[in-house]
Amino acid sequence: MKTREKAVKEVKFRHGVLALGALAVVMFGCVVGLGSEPQIPLVIGCAIAGGIALYLGRTWEDVLDAMLKGINDSMEAVLILMCIGMLVGVWIQSGTVPTMIYYGLMVVTPELFLPIAFVVTLVVGVVLGSWGAAGTIGIAFLGIAAALNVPLGMAAGAIVAGAYVSEIISPLVDGPNLAAAIADCGVFALCKRFLVLCLVTCAGCTVVYLVIGMNLNLAGSADVSGQVASLLTALDANYNIGPVTLIPLAVMIVCIALKVPAIPSFLVAIAFGMLEACTLQGSDLSTVVEVANLGVVSSTGFAELDALLSNGGIQEMMSTISIVVLVMAFGGIMQHTHLMDALVDPIVSRLRRFAQLVTATVFSGALFNVLLPDQYPAITLSTQMYSKEFRRRGVENEVWGNIVNSSAGITSVLVPWNTCAVYMVTVLGVPCLAYAPYAFFCYLYPLVIIVAGMFFSRKLGWISRPEAVEPDAVAVREGCPDGVTAAQNA
């Protein structure tokens, strides 16, 4: 054992940069240049990082163990993602999601289109996730916007912004679950901790959309009324719509309020959805079970409705799960072979104040979304980069998990070559640079987090001890206790 330890070379900053830079180059080339999905670039990134670790004297058993440790950290998130897939499919079949869409469309008016599109997409996104919301209710709203003569860039911006609120506050969405898994905290705790800041930002965005909408000269409201009426009629004809179908949603909210763990909460909500699908919608049990696995394939004959409601199922989540597993394998190599420490320590040692750490974390998340054009690597690597420093300063896991997710989780959709933006452009048909200026939440919320970290971190309970605000990095490196200067120690 002694001989092997001596054979391991010192891990230096350049080694960490090489591993991360190589992944960035491969990801960018494959995702942007070749139009591929992120999985294969991540496999190549794991091979490169593993190769660097082997060069530094690690054994293959070390590298494999590091990957398995990283993957093991994501297992709860993987199980939750499967539960989310089941829940979405079952809630569509039970009428829960159709009822939410129905009530949302009932309040659309020309003058209030932008704020309503933002808020309704937000609500649907809490259940279906950002991509699910944009690909369903978002498409419907974009058709309404075209009939209203609302600039499509504005409309798509409001839709994208509303959809991505779910990446911060919804325990049913993969991004928060991944952030919670890596930060080692409950997903409900993560989503609740910054809820007030998120809702304040949403309220501000809604006011801005309202002001913009009230000053637009819109026409074609009669056509819009007809289009909305047709969609409402189709929903009413194919589902038993009513408040009782929202019981599964109410059950989920109660579980969150009672702090029931995530997986049992999902299973209870799924069970209520299955019951309502059988009793209220007339589905047989075999169909409901199949929907939980494969998702809903809507075949009402009404194209807009079928696009809205073909979603859900465990299998729908498998692509996301494969990305999460590969990202965590790469992160495991970086973390457990100390490549991440070598990369991060020289940077973090210069962050004297807590506000600087918050700002660096937010900007790093956005930078990762530019360099590693996918949301999951951005969340994973940002979390792993700064976790040690946040913990050293005594910051609670759900606090710094939220700080990471505030940028890494939502700025991806603003980068034209990121997979999230590519998806939005594909489903909405609006260029990223056309909708990005109006996706207010996606860049205002990270700024709110930075401002809160600068001026209100103590009042918000983000930090609890004086030395957490301004640690002496030199003292720490020289062996003094966390945040205690040499003078204080003396």
TrEMBL record:
Q: Which regions span the lipid bilayer? A: 12-34, 40-57, 77-94, 100-124, 194-219, 317-334, 354-372, 435-456
Sorted UniProt keywords: Antiport, Cell membrane, Membrane, Transmembrane, Transmembrane helix, Transport
Is the rRNA processing keyword given for this protein? no
Q: Which Pfam families match?
A: Na_H_antiporter
Does the keyword Coiled coil belong to this entry? no
* Places the protein is found: Cell membrane
Q: Residues in domain Na+/H+ antiporter NhaC-like C-terminal?
A: 162-454
Task: Output the PROSITE patterns linked to this UniProt entry.
Answer: PROKAR_LIPOPROTEIN
Q: Identify the InterPro entries for this entry.
A: Na/H_Antiport_NhaC-like_C, NhaC_Na-H+_Antiporter
Q: How does it sit in the membrane?
A: Multi-pass membrane protein
Family recorded in the similarity comment? Belongs to the NhaC Na(+)/H(+) (TC 2.A.35) antiporter family.
Q: Which PANTHER family match?
A: MALATE-2H(+)/NA(+)-LACTATE ANTIPORTER (PTHR33451), MALATE-2H(+)_NA(+)-LACTATE ANTIPORTER (PTHR33451:SF3)
Name of the featured protein: Sodium:proton antiporter
What lineage does UniProt assign to this protein's organism? Answer: Bacteria, Bacillati, Actinomycetota, Coriobacteriia, Eggerthellales
